[in-house]
Design a protein that fits this description.
The complex is a heterodimer of chains A (482) and B (102). Chain A is of the alpha/beta class and 482 residues long. Chain A has two domains: 202 residues, no CATH class; 176 residues, TPP-binding domain (Rossmann fold, 3-Layer(aba) Sandwich), CATH 3.40.50. A seven-stranded parallel beta sheet of chain A has the order 1-7-6-5-2-3-4. In chain A, helix 1 packs antiparallel against helix 2, helix 6 runs antiparallel to helix 7 and helix 6 runs antiparallel to helix 9. About 3% of the residues of chain A have low confidence. Chain B folds into two domains: 31 residues; 70 residues. Chain B is built from five helices and no strands. The termini of chain B are far apart. The relative contact order of chain B is 0.11. The mean pLDDT of chain B is 88. The chains are: A alpha/beta (482), B mainly alpha (102). At the A-B interface, helix 1, helix 2, helix 3, helix 4 and helix 6 of A face helix 1, helix 2, helix 3, helix 4 and helix 5 of B.
Chain lengths: 482, 102
């Protein structure tokens, strides 16, 4: 082992440590940002080290530097620009998109290495020997290549579907027996892989590309029926898939940085997925199989229909100005309308009038956990004003007015009372205990889970229809005129 | 089958790494508050972008005559870089907003 190689191994060790440290720091609010930077630095030295110091088995350095640098430059520029310009509301789909890129990268590596492996063999040497030349391929390498191919393409295709759904380009889609088809496809894919691994048939190359196509199709069908509201959980799961795909590359190249980074994310991602499910009080299986859409339709026909009452802007303004305690419950509607600044302005205005205003943050409000915190932080809402669900739920009976801004499922009392509801058991904000509830939403359409919300029909509830930003601006103008 | 067993024997130190890393990964983020779920997911997403190293190796070893390998490798490098750079930048943007509140 020459000096360069040892140095590279040392660099990989440092990179692995930064990944572990970075992840550790990312799970604490105080150190999170630094943790991200630490991991990024580790990644940077690992990349530079690989380009400069890597030598293959024959002792040759890497060639094609123009291609490598060119690819890094193109990817770097596009990545930075798109990440810098993405709107806060579009953050989750951006993460999904980047995750898909990683999956595709892992799958591509598998394809190239497979071509490499097959290409190096000369069929004429093995002709007439009673066995095909594929039988001499290294089984372990094939195993890793196939695992990288399958996991990478499932992750890529799934992430693309998750991205399209969150971006509103695609609706939930399910057909009868889809789960059976999915399971069958998975078994078939694994079966084909086992045939390649153990039997090495003449059609090995055809099988390989069939596996590629099947895995991608599986990824699509796996994510399609899952409700849009559950996409963060799915993205987190696919995230851990990509981690494992990256680790396969670690085996392929005996590369410990890829191995530690990949497996670390695979394990942490899986745990994170489970934690996210716990926050919604649902099991992972329930998220993956029990698609929201189907049960919601049944619910809607029997749903709580009734009369709701509308409220005028000026009534709402008067009611809030003369209250002593107001709680704002932000939801996805606020994010879509980009109304966080208007919201903060209203809060300051009310505070000037002596009203005590706080925000009630449900852990899964919006499209991703922490979505509301990020959004309100963007508008400079002081951290102390944000109350977590457990903290504020006991206070609701003493609250005069709750202003629900574009939130729906997280304040749906059916989660506590109706065992047939798909969100039954999810902890919610007990806003119905407050003296008045003002709900702002664009129309009476149900929320993301597709279920009716009986809160809207309660006598204490008044509806304030319209785009959050517009309504808030009108409210602000009205309160100023009082 | 024999080959695969042999492969396991040859790579046993790596398999040990895998097992240890599974526990490290779980332990390290065990107590994350739900507020940080998304930035953590995004940060982890960037870390698995380490697959870029594989893409660089593939690209660097590609035969300059083999156009398919060059193009596929080039694509892999671009996609991997997108994952790494985009992932870290997006995470930083999310966390930047968290920090401002202090």
């Amino acid at each position: 082992m020459n000096r360069m190689e040892s140095l590279l191994l040392f660099i990989y060790l440092i990179a692995s440590i930064t990944f572990i440290l970075g992840l550790k720091m990312l799970s604490n609010p105080k150190t999170a940002r630094k943790g991200n930077t630490v991991a990024a630095l580790g990644m940077g030295i690992a990349i530079i080290g690989t380009i400069l110091l890597y030598t293959n088995d024959a002792g040759d350095h890497l060639g094609n530097h123009v291609w490598i640098i060119g690819g890094l430059a193109i990817g770097g520029v596009i990545g930075t620009l798109s990440a810098k310009n993405v709107k806060m509301t579009a953050m989750p789909q951006m993460v999904s998109l980047f995750n898909g890129m990683g999956g595709a990268c892992a799958a591509l590596i598998s394809i190239i290495e497979f071509k490499h492996l097959v290409h190096d063999f000369k069929p004429e040497l093995y002709a007439g020997g009673g066995y095909t030349y594929f039988s001499t391929l290294d089984g372990g390498v094939l195993l890793v290549i196939l695992a990288g191919l399958i996991i990478g393409s499932v992750s890529f295709a799934g992430s693309m579907i998750a991205w399209a759904k969150l971006d509103g380009r695609l609706n939930d889609y399910a057909f009868n027996g889809q789960h059976i088809v999915n399971i069958f496809m998975l078994i078939f894919t694994i079966g084909l892989s086992c045939m390649i691994l153990f039997l090495r048939p003449e059609e090995t190359i055809t099988f390989f590309y069939a596996i590629l196509a099947l895995s991608a199709l599986y990824g699509i069908l796996f994510v399609l029926p899952i409700g849009g509201a559950d996409m963060p959980v799915v993205i987190s799961l696919l995230n851990s898939f990509t981690g494992i795909a990256a680790a396969c590359g670690g085996f392929l190249y005996d590369n410990s940085a890829m191995l530690t980074g990949g497996i670390l994310v695979g394990a942490a991602g899986t745990l994170l997925t489970v934690l996210m499910c716990n926050a919604m009080n649902r099991s992972l299986l329930n998220v993956l199989i029990g698609s929201f859409g189907a049960s919601a339709q049944a619910n809607q026909s029997a749903g709580a229909q009734g009369t709701y009452k509308e409220m005028s802007i000026s009534d709402a303004a008067v009611l809030m100005s003369y209250s002593s305690k107001v709680v704002i419950v932000p939801g996805y509607g606020l994010a879509v309308a980009q109304a966080q600044h208007a919201c903060h302005e209203l809060e300051k205005l009310l505070a000037d009038k002596g009203v005590e205003v706080t925000y009630a943050i449900h852990p899964v409000a919006g499209r991703m956990p922490g979505h509301m915190n990020v959004l309100l932080a963007e508008a400079d809402v002081p951290y102390e004003k944000l109350k977590e669900m457990e903290e504020i739920n006991d206070e609701f009976p003493s609250i005069d007015v709750v202003l629900v801004l574009g939130a729906n499922d997280v304040v749906n009392p059916a989660a506590k009372t109706d065992p047939s509801s798909p969100i039954y058991g999810m902890p919610i904000l007990d806003v119905e205990l407050a003296k008045h509830v003002i709900v702002n939403k664009r129309s009476m359409k149900p929320g993301y889970a597709g279920i009716e919300n009986e809160l809207f029909f309660r006598p204490k509830t008044s509806m304030l229809f319209g785009d959050s930003k517009k309504v808030l601006q009108d409210l602000i103008a009205e309160i100023k005129n009082l | 089958m024999e080959q695969i067993l042999q492969w396991f024997a040859e790579h046993q130190d790596m398999i040990y790494i895998v097992i240890l890393m599974v526990f490290v990964g779980i332990e390290v983020i065990g107590r994350v508050p739900s507020v940080l779920h998304t930035p953590l997911m995004s940060g982890a997403n960037a870390i698995h972008g380490v697959v870029i190293i594989g893409a660089i190796i593939v690209m660097g070893n590609a035969d300059p005559e083999d156009i398919t390998a060059l193009i596929l490798g080039f694509l892999a490098v671009i996609l991997g870089t997108l994952n790494v750079v985009g992932g870290f930048v997006v995470t930083d943007r999310m966390l930047e907003m968290f920090n401002k509140k202090k």
